[in-house]
Specification:
The chain contains 7 helices and 4 strands; from the N terminus they run ββαααααβααβ. The protein has about 160 residues and is mainly alpha-helical. The strands form 2 sheets. Strands 1-2 form a two-stranded antiparallel sheet. A two-stranded antiparallel ribbon has the order 3-4. Helix 3 crosses helix 4.
């Protein structure tokens, strides 16, 4: 299946991620050649679940991508669900490579704006500044573990 978001950009969800990030390295060379975007997005990449990653999250997406080389593959890609938020960051990194836009800029332009989401933002500051916002159950734990995921909306 191909996903198209303009005449210029196409991504095959079932192609190996290395097609879009040639410098990607996983701890297992076979997995490096096999893991697909669909597997990253469905948490079936074979990369470990969140609780098996270091608690300290790198500050940038580039540093997170480098971290993949040191993490063991804990399942054959495509065979087991293991919730991995860093895999979603890697999928966002693919989008950045293909579109030459940051994930945030792409999301604002192609998702938030068409949906009329005028108060949508990213990260804890956006959440805290939104006048009509959802409250995380444990605000301190959520942002401490997942500061790089933070799209929030108050439409």
């Amino acid at each position: 299946m191909s996903l198209s978001w303009s005449d210029q950009h196409h991504v095959d969800l079932d192609a190996p991620v290395i097609r879009y990030i040639p410098d990607l390295r996983l701890s297992d060379p076979q997995a490096t050649q096999a893991v697909t975007l669909r597997q990253l997005l469905s948490h079936t990449s074979g990369l470990p679940a969140d609780e098996q990653w270091p608690q300290q999250v790198p500050a940038t997406r580039d540093e997170i991508v480098i971290e993949f080389a040191s993490m063991p593959i804990t399942a054959q890609p495509g065979t087991r669900f293991q919730y991995c938020s860093r895999c979603i960051v890697l999928a966002a990194y693919v989008l950045e490579r293909i579109t030459s836009q940051s994930w945030e800029a792409y999301t604002r332009t192609h998702i938030f704006a068409p949906l009329g989401m005028t108060m949508a933002s990213f990260g804890p500051l956006g959440l805290e500044q939104a006048p009509d916002r959802a409250q995380p159950y444990r605000h301190d734990l959520f942002w401490a573990k997942c500061p790089y995921l933070g799209a929030v909306s108050s439409t």
